[in-house]
């Protein structure tokens, strides 16, 4: 991505927290990823929220395919740039 940021979309907070841990352990991400609750448009129910894991990658070290594979294990996906 040109802005050096990856956005991983996860179905719930538990999955987002687990992915954030895996990024630190398996991918060597030094800066802690940012977790963001993303309520789906038109949904008031807190259960209908996705969670975003925002990873800063200014040096473009992270492989988008590997990130996509990781989040797919948690029913998530890598947001397209």
Number of H- or I-type helical stretches: 2
The profile of the biggest β sheet is:
4 strands, antiparallel
Strand order within the widest beta sheet: 2-3-1-4
Ranges with pLDDT <50 over ≥5 residues? none
Instruction: Write down the overall mean pLDDT.
Output: 88
Distance between the termini: 6 Å
The class by helix and strand makeup works out as: alpha+beta
Task: Report the radius of gyration as a whole number of Å.
Answer: 12 Å
What is the molecular shape? Answer: globular
Write down the secondary-structure element order.
Answer: EHEEHE
Helical residue percent band: 25-40%
Q: Count every beta strand, where a strand is a DSSP E run of 2 or more residues.
A: 4
- Give the strand content: 25-35%
Structural account:
The chain has helices at residues 13-26, 64-72; strands at residues 5-10, 34-39, 49-56, 77-78. The chain is built from 2 helices and 4 strands. It starts with a strand and ends with a strand. Strands 2-3-1-4 form a 4-stranded antiparallel beta sheet, with helices on one face. The mean pLDDT is 88. The protein is an alpha+beta fold and 81 residues long.
What does this entry show, briefly?
This protein is an alpha+beta fold. The protein has helices spanning 13-26, 64-72; strands spanning 5-10, 34-39, 49-56, 77-78.
């Amino acid at each position: 991505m040109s802005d050096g940021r990856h956005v991983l979309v996860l179905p719930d907070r538990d999955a987002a927290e687990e992915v954030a841990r895996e990024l630190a352990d398996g991918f060597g991400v030094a800066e802690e990823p940012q977790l963001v609750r993303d309520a789906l448009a038109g949904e008031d129910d807190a259960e209908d929220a996705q969670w975003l894991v925002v990873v800063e990658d200014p040096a473009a070290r992270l492989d988008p395919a590997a990130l996509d594979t990781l989040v797919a294990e948690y029913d998530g996906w890598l947001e397209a740039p």
